[in-house]
Each structure stands twice: as C-alpha cells, then as structure tokens.
Amino acid sequence: MLVFATVSFLMFVTPGPGVLSLAGVGAAFGWRQGLLYMAGLFWGHVIVSVAVITGLAAILLAEPVVRIILLFLSAAYLGYLAFRIALAGSKISFIEMIKAPGFMTGMTLQ
User: Fold this and answer.
1) Can you list the alpha helix ranges (DSSP code H) found in 1-110?
2) What is the pTM of this model?
3) pLDDT surpasses 70 at 89
C-alpha cells in the first residue's frame, strides 16, 4: 500500500499528459472548462485506484480472456490517439478546437 501511495503522489506532482492538457484546456477555454476537465482526470484516477486497491484489477487480469480483451482495447485506444495526432499535422492546439474537451475526455485520458 505504501508503494501505491508513493506512486500516486508522484503521479500528482509531476507534469504528465493530464497536467499538460489541463493547462492547455484552461488557457484556451477558461477556468470553468478546465475545472470540468480536471474533474474527469480526478475521477479517472479514482476509478483506476479503486480497481487496484480492491484487487479488482488483479482478478480481471488473472483471467486470460479478459486480459487479452483489455490488451486489444488498450492497443486500439493508443492507435486511435496516434491516428488523431498523425492527422492533426501542425494544428495540435486547443485554441483551434471548436468544443472544449469535457469530463469524459479527461476521465478517459487518465
């Protein structure tokens, strides 16, 4: 549990994709949209943390079929993100977006 708490703390204090994208959302769309996005990041982390702490993640990953399904879903999501980045070209910025990333975007990023 101490290792989990240490890793969670380090995830919160180091800038990663969540923190950097939150800064971009806040700068481009204002603090209210940033707060909504941050709530999604927070609840995404809570869901993963609860799954790890309760052992649900270990139970799911112990089943080979579930593990393979999660592996392919994870790979598909990473492929989707790579595809979006590849097609964005040099237009990767929040300023050119019409709609601000919301709660669900933050939650899935986490």
Assistant:
1) 2-13, 17-29, 31-53, 56-62, 64-88, 103-109
2) 0.70
3) no
